Amino acid sequence: MSDPYLPLWRQLLAVAAVLQAVRGGRSLTPVLEQVDRALRPGVQALAFQVLRHLGRAEALRRVLARRAPPPAVDALLSSGLALLVPGEDAPYEAFTLVDQAVEAAKHDASLRPSAPFVNACLRRFLRERETLMLVTDRDHVAKWNHPSWWIKRLKNDHPGRWQGVLEASNRHAPMSLRINRRRTTVEQYIAMLAAAGFKAVPLGISGVVLERPMQVHELPGFEDGLVSVQDAGAQLAAPLLLDGLASAGTAQVLDACAAPGGKTAHLLELGAGQVTALDVDPIRCERISANLKRLGLSARVIARDAADTVEWWDGRYFDVILLDAPCTASGIVRRHPDVRWLRRESDVGQLAALQARLLKALWPLLKPGGRLLYCTCSVFREEGSVQIKAFVASNTDARLQASPGHLMPQFRAAESAVPDNQPGDHDGFFYALLEKRLP
After folding, report:
1. Hey, which end of the chain has fewer CB within 10 Å, N or C?
2. Which of 32, 75, 73, 79 is CA-nearest to residue 53?
3. 249 pLDDT tier (thresholds 50, 70, 90)
């Protein structure tokens, strides 16, 4: 999991600090970037585990300590409990975790007086584990490790599937790759991986799934643009938009919310014509350009708000528009386990309003007979089917084509190849392909 010469207590102190930051409303990724580089791999792995079991850990803490301890102590205790919850699947032996959590407290001046308290709570959990787990099972936030409002919304949106969605969201995501078919083939790349000692199976038309995750710099040919990291569900976007389009090679294409550029690159790899990639954040636009350069691709990259068309549109209509709209990211929590704890229920309506604004602004820029693919990485209907139903009802020239709709997060053992057009083990997405009727 991490450098064996780095004591676990140092990692646990850093994990507790990361948890405090997330509880304070900060996103996990930038918080982890501030962790000492030597500690970061281990801290990231442990922090992901903590956030996946945080609902249970907080419920256990409330039973073990009726009065909430100071925030820093609570973060260390909750981290220890979350790491102990998986039992035999815990990242370290139980008594090692307890010992090192206590050591973490002893090595921090502000936490030192609470070391006996942390020790007592964690050891009581080990002694009374079965009873305490049963007691906290009554708390649905503890059982499912998602906020109460999130669980309720999923029950309402997907009454027959909500439990599977929550279970899949708490799993480790696989590492899926998209092959740059302009430079190699799936078969050739799997052979390259095998030669380097890595196992993988094919994924759909242009992808592979690795047997185990690895750092991108370890991937054969990554710096030479042979491959990109992209979830299986996200790899559906470009084919959905371009398949069967006779003029794909000469089409004017807009990727309206493009950063970090994965779908933009996929469109170009599949032979899309002139691509304009927009994003509101100039720094994220630099990342789009860097990704395209690595892959040997080019597009017109513009840092503008896609909805403010007066500021960037030159009056030329688009044949194809991809709107990967900002959303709650409720479909990708297995890769971003902090999202569930950072989001508020009010965010859903606010983001749905932004999505509607983008659809309204971009639809007039599409040629009659053209296609717009609306997608989000959300499992909430307000950001998916409800949004599109309202749009089609208010735009008589919009026709909904055959498209996947809501794709729920799904686990699939990577034991066999995934058939063409089947995303296999994937994150949660919504896809709606709209065609503008001819006059």
Report:
1. C
2. 79
3. confident
